[in-house]
Amino acid sequence: MRLYYHPLSSNSRRVVLVVHHLGLDVELIAVDLAGAEHKTADYLAMNPNGKVPTLVDGDFELWESYAIIQYLADKTPGQDIYPEDIAARADVNRWLFWSAYHFAPTAGLLIKERVSKRLSPRLGPPDPQEIARGEAQLPPIAAILDRHLAGKRWIAQDRLTLADFAIAATLMHTAAAQLPVAGFANIEAWFARVQSLAAWAKSTA
Hints:
Blueprint: E1 2-5, H1 10-22, E2 27-30, H2 41-46, E3 54-57, E4 60-63, H3 65-74, H4 86-119, H5 128-148, H6 162-170, H7 185-195, H8 198-204
């Protein structure tokens, strides 16, 4: 399998975390986003969205990071991060969808303005209105996760699952994007646990 990714992409990071946790033999191929490699005809033939990551498994090409991590877990016999029980899996899926539709896009407002635009000047200067929107919208969403984590070590099923990797990846730019999550003690403790995992260290290297 091959994974086309970028090391500073949080969408890529959630997949790389799962790859390392599961110990999969996946070739990591960095895509030159600054050079617009993701907009070339060859890349668009794999992923018409022109984004990272993209997984290639034989003649099967898969995009969307949340779909990719589910696929990788399902392909791995004996995996321990995506339960087979219907209710338990629905619990994990609930948080994956929450991340995809609420948490990650809102944090993404600040990541784009304070990280992506600094790395790619062609995107233009930071937009103060977008920054203000992200700073206003993210804390109430983060509060939902913080309340949920009270008394818990992990997000779903009292064990490490895809939900933890998926949501933690968004926080990789907490400092650079100045994400307003400081003070959410339960999130901070949980994120520290994720950062102590071997998969996190390997995905940072």
